């Protein structure tokens, strides 16, 4: 474990690494209730989506760069992969900047959050950071980008679809090298596995704390608890290219199915509860009769 | 003419510098607010890494371990430390692109003047490619400054002083390597 100093902030009772530097034009927030809801249905939603992606790519650059800083004794080949990732992520940021301008958007148009940085850079272990950032968050983006490219194309936005596919292609390498190096590091030192497991537990705790609760809304008025987590199918072909094994992919698909069943049940319960509450309110109003003059 | 040993030591020293420049840019990425500067540094991390890698492969061909680095003279290490500790973005851009890179280029040219271009042709090729990269990196920084003039260091004296600090160092090969070369 590296002896590095990590400056943190507290949000909803959990610790996050303090935000990286941003220009004053940005409103940096920490909760989904301070953001616009995610979507691409309207021109404004699409601009927000691209605006959010710019910051995500900037964060990915920062996270990879910080690994170079915090782990100077990492194998040189791994440092080369991280250095290359820095370049890739800057190109992605520029691609999204260009798209945002084409759409008439501008920097600082929407609030941004640096949650990936805040979570990933908390950990003092290189295997843990690679596992959280590259193997979890970036691998998750393989699923998201695959679906988003299709969504853009269905909407007739070929330009955004092509951009998304180009970024998706690069992200495969970032997940692949992390998978390769995590295996190497675990083989060389089984303690790395414990560090990864502890980090995954901590990330799950953070995610639970940050998940919107009932009665919480995005700044554009969307009830966040009712929306739940967006569903993205596991992008099996690209995850396979990114060196997830057949066994790992099968386990992911099983877990995803279990999650969907659980979420569907939770959603059914939520809707039933909402229906009963509305029914009770309407009965109360009917029972109260006309109010006194 | 440089011996194999001296050529290896020079190349290993250049590798040390390239790694340190890569790490400097990496440290600046999260701590620089201006997005364009941040992204410029992020891109050039990869350039410096490739330079270090090419030098590191060459060290192995010159009887040193693969990816071997050699610390330069302490005063040059001090200069690199002062570069890394620059805070304001205008100083970072000026320090890196107007001082550190051009001065390193001058040192690489000096090496080319000392080595045998045929005997040491693989190193010469590496350095020639680095010159092309450095020219592009500096050009990119100029393009950035043309678009965002507020990021330009207007205090020319600061630039001159920082460059003079580097120039005053003289040879950068560690003293023990130089002594060994003369032994």
Structure overview:
The complex is a heterodimer of chains A (293) and B (183). Chain A has 293 residues and is mainly alpha-helical. Chain A folds into two domains: 8-244, Ferritin, CATH 1.20.1260.10; 247-293. Helix content of chain A is 66%, strand content 4%. Chain A has nine helices and four strands, in the order βββααβααααααα. Chain A has helices spanning 43-70, 76-102, 115-120, 126-154, 158-188, 191-210, 224-227, 236-241, 246-288, and strands at 8-11, 14-17, 28-29, 112-113. In chain A, the strands form two sheets. In chain A, strands 1-2 form a two-stranded antiparallel ribbon. In chain A, a hairpin with a 2-residue loop joins strand 1 and strand 2. Chain B is mainly alpha-helical and 183 residues long. Chain B has one domain (4-182): Ferritin, CATH 1.20.1260. Helix content of chain B is 76%, strand content 0%. The longest helix of chain B is centred in the N-terminal third of the chain and has 28 residues, at 4-31. The A-B interface holds A 20-24, 58, 61-62, 65-66, 68-69, 72, 76, 79-80, 83-84, 86-87, 89-91, 93-94, 107, 117 and B 22-23, 25-27, 29-35, 38-43, 45-46, 48-50, 53, 56, 67.
The CATH topology of chain B turns out to be Ferritin
CATH fold-level topology of the largest domain in chain A: Ferritin
Tell how many strands the DSSP assignment of chain A holds: 4
Uncertain ranges of chain B: none
CATH superfamily of the largest domain in chain A: Ferritin, core subunit, four-helix bundle
Given as residue ranges, the uncertain stretches of chain A (5+ residues, pLDDT < 50) are none
Gyration radius of chain A, to the nearest Å? 21 Å
Shape of chain A: globular
- The shape of chain B is globular
CATH C-level name of chain B:
Mainly Alpha
Q: How far apart, in Å, are the first and last alpha carbons of chain A?
A: 73 Å
Q: Helical region count of chain A?
A: 9
Overall tally of domains of chain A: 2
């Amino acid at each position: 474990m590296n002896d590095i100093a990590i400056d943190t902030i507290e949000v909803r009772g959990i610790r996050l690494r303090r935000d990286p530097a941003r220009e004053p034009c940005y409103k940096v927030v920490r909760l989904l209730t301070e953001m616009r809801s995610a979507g691409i249905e309207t021109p404004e939603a699409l601009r927000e989506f691209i605006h959010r992606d710019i910051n995500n790519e900037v964060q990915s650059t920062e996270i990879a760069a910080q690994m170079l800083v915090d782990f100077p004794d990492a194998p040189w080949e791994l440092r080369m992969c991280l250095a290359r990732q820095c370049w890739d992520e800057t190109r992605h940021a520029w691609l999204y900047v260009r798209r945002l301008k084409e759409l008439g958007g501008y920097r600082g148009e929407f609030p941004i959050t640096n949650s990936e940085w805040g979570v990933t850079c908390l950990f003092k272990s290189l295997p843990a950071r690679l596992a959280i950032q590259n193997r979890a968050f970036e691998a998750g983006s393989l699923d998201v980008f695959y679906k988003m490219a299709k969504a853009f194309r269905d909407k007739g936005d070929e330009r955004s679809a092509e951009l998304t596919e180009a970024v998706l292609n690069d992200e495969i390498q970032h997940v692949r090298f992390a998978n390769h190096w995590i295996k190497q590091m675990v083989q060389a030192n089984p303690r790395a596995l414990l560090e990864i497991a502890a980090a995954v537990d901590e990330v799950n705790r953070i995610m639970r704390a940050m998940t919107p609760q009932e009665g919480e809304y995005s700044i554009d008025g969307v009830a966040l608890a009712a929306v739940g987590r967006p569903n993205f199918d596991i992008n099996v072909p690209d995850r396979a290219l990114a060196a997830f094994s057949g066994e790992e992919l099968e386990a992911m698909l099983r877990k995803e199915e279990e999650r969907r069943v659980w979420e569907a049940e939770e959603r059914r319960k939520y809707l039933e509860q909402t229906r009963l509450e509305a029914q009770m309110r309407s009965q109360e109003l009917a029972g109260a009769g006309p109010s006194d003059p | 003419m440089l011996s194999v040993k001296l050529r290896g030591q020079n190349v290993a020293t250049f590798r040390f510098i390239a790694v340190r420049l890569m790490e400097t840019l990496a440290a600046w990425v999260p701590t620089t607010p201006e997005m364009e500067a941040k992204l410029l540094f992020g891109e050039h991390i990869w350039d410096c890494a490739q330079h270090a890698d090419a030098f590191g492969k060459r060290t192995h061909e010159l009887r040193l371990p693969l990816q071997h680095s050699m610390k330069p003279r302490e005063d040059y290490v001090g200069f690199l430390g002062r570069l890394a500790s620059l805070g304001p973005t205008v100083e970072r851009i000026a320090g890196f692109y107007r001082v550190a890179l051009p001065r390193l280029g001058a040192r690489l040219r000096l090496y080319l003047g000392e080595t045998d271009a045929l005997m040491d042709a693989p190193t010469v090729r590496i350095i020639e490619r680095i010159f092309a990269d450095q020219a592009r990196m500096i050009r990119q920084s100029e393009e950035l400054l043309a678009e965002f003039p507020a990021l330009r260091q207007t205090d020319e004296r600061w630039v001159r002083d920082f460059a003079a600090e580097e120039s005053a160092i003289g040879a950068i090969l560690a003293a023990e390597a130089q002594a060994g070369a003369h032994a």
